[in-house]
Amino acid sequence: MDELSGVLTVVDDFVWGPVMLVLLVGTGIWLTVRLRFRTWRNLGYAIASTFSRESRNAVRGEGDIPPFSALMTALAATIGTGNIVGVATAMVSGGPGALVWMWISAAFGLSSKFSECMLAIKYREVNEKGEMSGGPMYTMKKAYKNKRLGAAMGWIFALLAVVASFGIGNMTQANSISEALHTTFLFQPAIIGIVLTILALLIIVGGIKSISKVSSVVVPLMAVFYVIAGLIVIIINYRNLPAGLYMIFSMAFSVKAVGGGLCGTITAAMMNALHYGVARGVFSNEAGMGSAAITAAAATTDHPVRQGYINMTGTFWDTIVVCTITGLCIASSGVLGMVDAKGEYVKGAALTIAAFRSALGDVGAWLVTIGIALFAFSTILGWEYHGEKAFEYLFGTHRYNMIYRVVFSLIVYVGATTSLNIVWSFSDIANALMAIPNLITLLVLSGSIAKDVDAFQPVIEAEKSARKKNRS
């Protein structure tokens, strides 16, 4: 078992190494330039569209759920432990400058997220049940001129997505909830597992409409709850904020390893900050992974580009907003660089808890624990739909979806009650490998994506003008 764990760790480090990070960020940079920075220039329009009345109601075009619900379900899968645990780990391993590289990767990740979601709607299908089915696997199958190659790539993507759904989207999340609640409140893992399994069954068995209804309420509430709590911590520690920001930016671009000040004994150079910032940022917002595109395909919309912009904002909310709150809490609290009784750096959830506790005492620890539980449970819901649609693609029919839903829900109990070191590594590898065919597809279809974006731009300009007139 130890040998297998060692092998998986080596493979995990390789697939999430420099080549993968260059491919992920490089694809985002290429698409951003190819789209003439429209994803940046239209970000305000995209955010306004997200909160519009039309986005909350399925009134324009065809689909299963409203555009806002599709975004919230996708966010349910992406806003997870990475926003709390991942940020803290990146700032310890890569220094506080890692936060800047999370922002930079997210800025280019907007284009990757936009493109994969737009293509998913463009090439989606209606299954025998009358439901929308889409995602990178359908894009690969239908968009490639070489149909055999496209079908093979789509099948590989779907298989890896199913594996990732049970691992990174299910068991590891349930395990995070169990550990957090047991550590803070001393709840027994078996009881936590039973409660989580029952809740998952009640919601997941109802399919995408049930999942989206819960996500549309839980995701905004949990995000606002966490952001407000984080802002309170930052305000209480406001005296340290300028020094914290200086530390973040200076260590992000320092060629020599530097440290000291609010980061204690941590020293890190720019390449270290870049590596951990990009890796944890991508893990958090999943831009370029292709998973969010599966949910985007269910949206009711009259144009793929319109929903692509709405789903694109998921990367903004996940990394630029939620991850930033965690990072600033840590940077302004003076806890970065703390060591535990064994003399090792405090990182992960424990570091974020220490940051909140510095301002709010034990209440801060409770808030972070509740945040982890909500974020991780929402990830289970969102990833169930991703996995289900990939499962449907593999079998070519929706008839076995209910079996997948029940099994997926029952596996939650296993995650909550079992040690998962091997599962973490295995599912992390699957998560990375499913990105490769998706990123290749985005690069191959970048010309087609650019044409669709250019064609839709006059519609955006007209809607912007109409909104200005309504305000005046």
CATH topology: Hydantoin permease
How does the major sheet shape up?
Answer: 2 strands, antiparallel
The CATH class name reads: Mainly Alpha
- Write the CATH architecture name: Orthogonal Bundle
Shape: globular
What integer value in Å does the Rg equal? 21 Å
As for the number of domains, it is: 1
Helix and strand composition category: mainly alpha
Q: How many DSSP E strands?
A: 4
Poorly predicted regions: none
Proportion of residues in β-strands: under 5%
Determine the N-to-C terminus distance: 67 Å
List the strand order in the largest sheet.
1-2
* Overall pLDDT level: 85
Number of helices: 21
**What is the percent of helical residues?**
over 70%
N to C succession of SSEs: HHHHHHHHEEHHHHHEEHHHHHHHH
Membrane topology: Multi-pass membrane protein
Family: Belongs to the alanine or glycine:cation symporter (AGCS) (TC 2.A.25) family.
Keywords: Cell membrane, Membrane, Symport, Transmembrane, Transmembrane helix, Transport
InterPro entries: Na/Ala_symport (IPR001463)
